[in-house]
């Protein structure tokens, strides 16, 4: 059995470059999600206690995010342009159909910039209560921003209306690939339905009609038929649309025995005698300008013969027809809400913000642990109290957040993936027969299968989806033979996923231990427990480990994104657009040398920046300890 | 009236470009002042450099936000354009992006590393700051010049779809507008910065409470005065150079100058007359010239300025900053509603496809695909919907060229609308509300950044450094 590797899908260079850009951005912006929130909490604690120590903690945390925020903005701009330049067809589609969250994100970005800078520049000019309000608006801006971007990403992971091909039914898993699943739900305007041979589409392509409705398109109220279309058909139409194909060059015009298979010639001919319906069709498919370009003034009462109608429709770009279908689908669901209806969105946004809080907590904890390690005992009492208070605050915060990530949001995320991305779930679990997965290596496959089945489906006996049961070409259109590559995700994500889980558990254990140690002077039971484990005082090895775990927290978070993104391959938008269709056609972008150079440049700047931040954030600490 | 989409684009771009121009100038001015301050142990220059850097760091963040807002709005309103531009303009955009990454890094490292790096290292970072500030607009201005004339466009029709590319050499050297536009933009950025800094210090001089503060403000004004005068003179020459280069794009040129009596090409009709924008820009420039004539000589002689002269210099600073968005609006709207300014002349037959190939290095493979390419790019206009000025312009073109089906098809398309779901009333109202709230907040932020800090705060911040 041959399984797909990460590099066996198209445009590996572009994918690698995007990985570098987006991973860099994510690495940094987690601090923008977390540090302003921590600052806000510290300000609240100051307002409650009026203890200057909390104000000092808040100020230090603010200093951290103000440095990384500007870098985050830079890497965000880089990522944005990277998307436009490397994946222009994806960007174009996003701008046309799911623009709203991107558009609304701009206001979030403005909120972040204005209020985070205001917090920093206004620190000594605004009273503490107002400062807390500014911090609140600042972190809300960051979270609002995340909620918009994650909604778009969730739509790419599981678009609204996706119907998966695997479901748990009657205590076992049922595979529906032979029935054309996974399918996308779409609202097809009735004038377009009239062009198609519905019976063939239902019988041969497994299209299902699930309802009807009405939608306003190009200023006209148009009836729609809600259908479920196999992704193999949908991706082919999207492919043809971005290859600038006309209907005549499309699978829609495929013939058998000299007759169209999918086009309804009778319906097309009938349009000639129904000028109003023809005009509606031409208007919603943007074909009126084409007809005007032919010199036919339909608006002035001119008519087309049946042959002319057929000619116009066959010359119509597939993109125009697809546009009408997608637009009516988006409008049926809700222009402003369509991405938020993605079934994986609620779990994704909570998990993403949670990751930002965990990484920020552990990183700040490491910073204060370092300060403690550097203490000689001669520091002023005020400084010692400040560092110890911050350490306790961050230890408890980190422990709570990692527990939340593991037991609540991570769990919900896993359940969502299992239900809506069964191919990814099977790959994460590495259920291919000829593949050496980690539970197998540890001889615990039975236990893990039952446990994961319980987590995913609420029943330990359902089992896990089998990678081998997923047809390698479930996304391939039979009429065109496209795409030629394997439709299943690469099995490498199994190792990434299990490494992430393993490191996540370690992170949780460390979080628990460090919180107990930090709070042992206030929690008697924690002290007793630690004494039983022969852990006295605040061991230096535990403080040193804080630095390791700050790095591990970043690794866990980035591996989570890697599983999410690589696990979606070969799709860019699951069920709709594959990576080769999304990619740029500019030949320069496909040169290995240019991709490598850009990646190296980016990494070099990042490395210098890390050094700069170390100097900027660390040096004052040293000086402070010596002089306060 | 232009539609809501170009109006929002203009608003976002106006903010962005004004702050970016100041940024280009400050990226050189701050390291220059800092270096001089260290070498000559000059506290005035150190104080000015620090103060300007502080302003620069804050405004650059805002400029970045408005720039991002502009691109996202463009993506939402005109996704087709972004799709095609993404394929074609890979190299110029990539140059800009790589330089933006370097620039952001340089700002952070320069600002936060003020007293932490050695003098030489700090200077090196200052150099990176300045060089990247010059190269960011090199890429972007390349795209703007391409929007004048698509020189260097490479299109290949293949069975797997259309492949796009850009011949960088042709884009720079075969496009007569590339170099004038870039050089003029850089010179303008420096000139605006000198006038704005001079204006800012004139205001500080006027409100100063101590003699020492007045002396300091007057000194910085004097330092800025000579380069500001030189810049103003240079702008006259470079402005003329760019205007002359635009004669190869008659549609655009005539929209600016035809009603002022300067016409070019076989059809000198101004279809979308923006001469008033040019006149307004010249009035703002006149304010700067008035300051140069009436206040600067006295300033340079070291004589004290009258209240009126201080106001005039301050006003010149404001006028200089306003000239920037106005100039951009003039450049952009003079080709309205076309994304590519040369296109109406190509479609009307004034520029032949042969000229595109021979003069401007456009490469179409196979050559027979040229009409299809024209049609593809032709479809990218600022469609604004019925009742907008875009429709008026296209109607005038249809009347002038009744047998031209290209214009007729464009008119039919322009009647439909911009990406209709991006201009839903709910979205438009939401945009108004947010922009009003955030603009007010941004103004307050600038007030916080610019207003003098209490002495205790200054001491605290210096201690922190």
Give a description of the structure.
The complex is a heterodimer of chains A (628) and B (465). By secondary structure, chain A is an alpha+beta fold. Chain A has helices at 12-49, 52-86, 88-97, 99-121, 128-157, 190-193, 198-203, 231-242, 265-272, 275-284, 288-293, 306-315, 318-333, 345-374, 381-420, 422-428, 438-441, 445-457, 492-519, 524-532, 540-566, 579-582, 592-627; strands spanning 162-163, 166-169, 172-175, 183-189, 208-217, 220-230, 255-256, 259-260, 571-573, 577-578. A 4-stranded antiparallel sheet of chain A has the order 1-4-6-5. A two-stranded antiparallel sheet of chain A has the order 2-3. Chain A is elongated, with a radius of gyration of 28 Å. Chain B is globular. In chain B, helix 1 crosses helix 7. In chain B, strand 1 and strand 2 form a beta hairpin. The termini of chain B are far apart. By secondary structure, chain B is mainly alpha-helical. The interface between A and B is large, with 81 and 85 residues.
Question: Number of DSSP helices of chain B?
Answer: 19
Question: Helical content of chain B, roughly?
Answer: over 70%
CA-based gyration radius of chain A: 28 Å
- Reading side by side through the largest sheet of chain A, how are the strands ordered? 1-4-6-5
Biggest beta sheet summary of chain A: 4 strands, antiparallel
Let me know the largest β-sheet of chain B: 3 strands, mixed
- Helical fraction of chain A equals 55-70%
Strand content of chain A: 5-15%
Number of strands of chain A: 10
Q: How large a portion of the residues of chain B is in β-strands, by DSSP E?
A: under 5%
Question: What shape does the CA trace of chain B take?
Answer: globular
Helix/strand-derived category of chain B reads: mainly alpha
Question: Per the principal axes of the C-alpha atoms, what is the gross shape of chain A?
Answer: elongated
Number of helical segments with 4 or more residues of chain A: 23
Low-pLDDT segments of chain A: 621-628
Question: Which strands sit side by side, in order, in the main sheet of chain B?
Answer: 2-1-3
């Amino acid at each position: 059995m041959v399984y797909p590797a990460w590099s066996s899908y198209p445009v590996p260079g572009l994918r690698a470059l995007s990985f570098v850009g987006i991973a860099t951005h994510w690495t940094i912006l987690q601090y923008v999600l977390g540090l302003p929130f921590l600052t806000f909490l510290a300000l609240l604690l100051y307002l409650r206690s009026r203890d200057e120590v909390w104000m000092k903690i808040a100020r230090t945390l603010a200093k951290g995010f103000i440095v990384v925020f500007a870098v985050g903005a830079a890497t965000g701009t880089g990522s944005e342009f990277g998307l436009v330049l490397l994946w222009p067809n994806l960007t174009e589609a996003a701008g046309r159909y799911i623009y709203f969250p991107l558009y609304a994100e701009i206001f979030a970005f403005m909120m972040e910039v204005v209020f985070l800078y205001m917090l920093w520049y206004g620190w000594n000019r605004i009273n503490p209560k107002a400062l807390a309000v500014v911090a609140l608006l600042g972190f809300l801006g960051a979270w609002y921003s995340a909620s918009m971007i994650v909604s778009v990403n969730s739509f790419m992971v599981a678009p609204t209306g996706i119907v998966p091909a695997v479901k748990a039914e009657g205590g076992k898993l049922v595979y529906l690939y032979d029935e054309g699943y996974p399918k996308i739900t779409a609202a097809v305007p009735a004038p377009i339905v009239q062009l198609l041979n519905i019976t063939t589409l239902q019988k041969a392509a497994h299209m299902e009609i699930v309802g009807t409705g009405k939608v306003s398109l190009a200023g006209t109220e148009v009836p729609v038929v809600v259908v479920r279309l196999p992704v193999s058909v949908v991706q082919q139409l999207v492919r043809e649309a971005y290859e600038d194909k006309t209907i005549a060059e499309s699978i829609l015009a495929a013939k058998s025995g000299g007759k169209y298979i999918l086009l309804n010639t009778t319906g097309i001919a009938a349009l000639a005698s129904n000028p109003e319906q023809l005009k509606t069709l031409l208007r919603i498919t943007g074909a009126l300008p084409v007809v005007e370009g032919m010199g036919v003034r339909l608006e002035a009462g001119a008519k087309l013969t049946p042959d002319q109608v057929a000619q116009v429709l066959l010359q119509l770009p597939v993109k125009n027809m697809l546009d009408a279908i997608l637009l009516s689908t988006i409008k049926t669901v809700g222009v402003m809400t369509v991405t938020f209806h993605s079934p994986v969105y609620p779990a994704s946004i909570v998990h993403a913000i949670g990751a930002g809080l965990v990484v920020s907590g552990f990183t700040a904890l490491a910073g204060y642990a370092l300060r403690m390690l550097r203490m000689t005992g001669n520091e002023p009492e005020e400084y010692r109290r400040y560092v110890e208070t911050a350490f306790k605050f961050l230890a408890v915060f980190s422990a709570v957040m990692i527990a939340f990530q593991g037991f609540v949001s991570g769990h919900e995320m896993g359940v969502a993936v299992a239900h809506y991305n069964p191919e990814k779930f099977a790959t994460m679990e590495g259920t291919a027969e000829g593949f050496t997965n980690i539970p197998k290596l540890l001889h615990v496959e039975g236990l893990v299968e039952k446990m994961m089945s319980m987590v995913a489906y609420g029943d330990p006996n359902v089992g896990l989806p089998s990678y081998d049961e997923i047809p390698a070409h479930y996304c391939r259109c039979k009429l065109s033979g496209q795409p030629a590559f394997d439709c299943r995700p690469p099995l490498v994500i199994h190792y990434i996923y299990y490494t992430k889980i393993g490191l996540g558990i370690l992170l949780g254990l460390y979080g628990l231990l460090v919180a107990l140690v930090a709070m042992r002077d206030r929690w008697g039971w924690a002290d007793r427990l630690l004494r039983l484990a022969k852990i006295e005082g605040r061991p230096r090895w535990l403080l040193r480990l804080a630095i390791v775990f700050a790095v591990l927290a970043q690794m866990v978070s980035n591996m989570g994104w890697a599983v999410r993104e690589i696990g979606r391959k070969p799709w860019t938008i699951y069920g709709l657009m594959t990576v080769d269709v999304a990619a740029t056609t500019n030949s320069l972008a496909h040169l290995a040398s240019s991709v490598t150079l850009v990646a190296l440049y980016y990494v070099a700047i990042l490395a210098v920046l890390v050094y700069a931040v170390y100097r900027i954030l660390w040096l004052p600490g040293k000086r402070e300890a010596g002089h306060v | 009236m232009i539609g809501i989409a170009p109006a929002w684009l203009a608003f976002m771009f106006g903010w962005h470009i004004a702050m970016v121009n100041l940024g280009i100038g400050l990226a050189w001015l701050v390291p220059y002042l800092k270096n001089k301050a260290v070498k000559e142990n000059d506290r005035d220059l150190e104080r000015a450099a620090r103060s300007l850097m502080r302003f620069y760091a804050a405004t650059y963040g805002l400029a970045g936000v408005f720039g991002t807002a502009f691109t996202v709005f463009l993506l939402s309103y005109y996704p087709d354009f972004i799709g095609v531009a993404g394929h074609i303009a890979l190299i110029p955009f990539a140059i800009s992006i790589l330089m933006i990454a370097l620039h952001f890094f340089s700002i952070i490292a320069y600002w936060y590393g003020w007293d932490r790096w050695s003098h030489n290292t700090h200077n090196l970072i200052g150099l990176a700051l300045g060089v990247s500030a010059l190269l960011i607009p090199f890429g972007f201005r390349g795209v703007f010049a391409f929007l004048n004339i698509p020189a260097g466009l490479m299109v290949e029709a293949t069975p797997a779809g259309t492949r796009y590319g850009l011949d960088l050499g042709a884009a720079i050297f075969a496009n007569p507008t590339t170099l004038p536009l870039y050089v003029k933009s850089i010179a303008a950025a420096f000139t605006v910065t000198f006038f704005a800094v001079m204006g800012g210090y004139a205001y500080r001089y006027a409100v100063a409470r101590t003699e020492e503060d007045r002396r300091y403000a007057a000194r910085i004004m004097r330092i800025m005065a000579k380069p500001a005068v030189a810049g103003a003179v240079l702008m006259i020459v470079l402005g003329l150079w760019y205007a002359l280069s635009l004669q190869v794009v008659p549609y655009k040129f005539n929209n600016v100058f035809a009603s002022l009596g300067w016409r070019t090409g076989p059809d000198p009709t101004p279809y979308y007359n923006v001469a008033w924008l040019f006149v307004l820009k010249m009035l703002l420039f006149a304010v700067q010239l008035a300051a140069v004539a009436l206040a600067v000589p006295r300033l340079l002689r070291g004589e004290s300025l009258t209240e009126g002269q201080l106001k005039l210099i301050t006003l010149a600073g404001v006028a200089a900053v306003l000239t920037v968005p106005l100039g951009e609006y003039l450049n952009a709207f003079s080709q309205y509603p076309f994304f590519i300014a040369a296109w109406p002349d190509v479609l009307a037959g004034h520029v032949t496809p042969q000229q595109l190939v021979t003069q401007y290095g456009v490469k179409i493979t196979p050559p027979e695909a040229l009409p299809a390419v024209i049609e593809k790019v032709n479809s990218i206009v600022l469609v604004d919907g019925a009742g907008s000025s875009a429709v008026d312009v296209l109607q005038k073109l249809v009347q002038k060229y009744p047998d031209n089906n290209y214009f007729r098809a464009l008119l039919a398309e322009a009647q439909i609308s911009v990406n209709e779901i991006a201009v839903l009333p709910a979205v438009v109202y939401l945009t108004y509300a947010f922009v009003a709230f955030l603009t007010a907040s941004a103004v307050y932020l600038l007030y916080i950044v610019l207003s003098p800090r209490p002495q205790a705060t200054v001491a605290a911040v210096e201690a922190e450094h």
